[in-house]
Specification:
This is Arogenate dehydrogenase. InterPro entries: 6-PGluconate_DH-like_C_sf, DUF2520, NAD(P)-bd_dom_sf, OxRdtase/DH_put_Rossmann_dom, TM1727-like_C_sf. It comes from Clostridium chromiireducens. The protein is of the alpha/beta class. It has 2 domains: about 1-180, NAD(P)-binding Rossmann-like Domain (Rossmann fold), CATH 3.40.50; about 235-325, no CATH class. About 50% of the residues lie in helices and about 10% in strands. The chain has helices at about 25-35, 50-60, 70-75, 85-95, 115-120, 140-145, 160-170, 180-190, 195-205, 215-235, 245, 250-260, 265-285, 300-315, 315-325, and strands spanning about 1-5, 10, 20, 40-45, 65, 75-80, 105, 125-130, 150-155, 175. The strands form 2 sheets. It has an 8-stranded mixed beta sheet with strand order 5-4-3-6-7-8-9-10. It is elongated and about 70 Å long.
Length: about 325
């Protein structure tokens, strides 16, 4: 296969590669719009909901399919952009067809490519291609999609249609191993879904003071944004602020006294993690090394040694550690 820069992807014979979508939801339509923006030819959309599927085809100026065999015939690459629990059902449908020279990709971050094992047995190349992005609308800003990373797992080889597609998109990407899928998805959930939950808990404490959700969010927005910007500019260790860093025992005690019972374990676990970063920062200050997490391993022994060194020089941090349940 050869790649014509700045236009459609083509096969050896010069035929244009066409990309189809099974699933006309937020992810499928957003990616379809983005692919078209990048000069990639779409075949169209297939879905169970006819109205949504026709709308997706209209938005992307592509074809509407009411028969799965037709979209298979008309596409070289098909993205399955359905809810996770539907993917294996679609895979069973795909097993009825000859899929030689076809590539099938699902966009789930939690499922391995081998959820499409029946498609593979029918001759297809299979992939999990996960955009690291929260799609909240079919009208996703295309400029935002320019910035996202893609993670890829599956039948990777240099001359594949998928690699050519990724190169045409120009997005940064990395290849992950099949056995790392759960760890990979966990990372995404921590910084997306669980962060949302953590922010909601913080907003809840301002609501107790009488603020509504909108005012609470607006009040906290500069704090959240400033913290995130600092992390990207200086890293985690060098962005530390707050009572755990300062060794402010009385503030931590007051926090614990007003915490809702359900939030106490969460507060302590997260604060203990902060204390590990404080220990790393303190270690860097003492030996003159650059203070980043790259400078130490993630072994429990290494972390415990850093914390012990911190306590030698700071009894107030040792007391905070005890308050947080770090010592019996």
């Amino acid at each position: 296969m050869r790649l014509k820069l700045g236009c459609c992807i083509t096969l050896h014979g010069g035929d244009t590669i066409k990309v189809g979508f099974i699933g006309p939801g937020k992810v499928g339509v957003s990616l379809g719009r983005y692919f078209t923006h990048k000069g990639i030819k779409l075949s169209g959309f297939y879905g169970r909901n006819i109205e949504n599927t026709k709308q997706a085809a209209d938005i992307t100026k592509s074809e509407f399919y009411d028969n799965i065999q037709d979209i298979i015939n008309e596409s070289n690459i098909i993205f399955i952009t359905t809810p996770d629990d539907i993917i294996s059902i679609i895979d069973n449908e795909l097993s009825k067809f000859d899929l030689k020279n076809k590539s099938f990709c699902h966009t789930s971050g939690s499922l391995k490519s081998n959820v499409l094992c029946n498609a593979k047995h029918s001759g297809a190349l299979i992939y999990s291609i996960h955009p690291i992005f929260a799609f909240s609308s079919k009208a996703t800003n295309l400029d935002e999609l320019e910035k996202i990373y893609l993670s890829i797992e599956g039948d990777i080889f240099d001359d594949s249609d998928i690699i050519s597609l990724i190169k045409t998109l120009g997005n940064k990407h990395f290849i992950r191993k099949e056995e790392d899928s759960s760890t990979y998805h966990l990372a995404n959930v921590f910084v997306s879904n669980l962060t949302l939950s953590l922010l909601e808990i913080g907003v809840g404490y301002l609501r107790k003071l009488g603020l509504n959700e909108e005012d609470a969010l607006n009040a906290l927005k500069p704090l959240v944004k400033g913290n995130v910007d600092s992390i990207y500019e200086k890293g985690f260790v060098n962005s530390l602020t707050g009572p755990v860093l300062r060794g402010d025992i009385s503030t931590v005690e007051k926090h614990i006294s007003v915490l809702e019972e359900r939030d106490k374990d969460l507060y302590k676990i997260l604060s203990l993690n902060l204390l590990e970063l404080v220990a790393l920062r303190s270690h860097g200050n003492m030996d003159g090394t650059e203070k980043t997490q790259e400078n130490y391993t993630n072994s429990n022994y290494e972390k415990e040694k850093l914390i012990e060194d911190l306590f030698i020089n700071s009894k107030k941090h040792e007391k905070i550690y005890k308050l947080l349940g770090g010592l019996d």
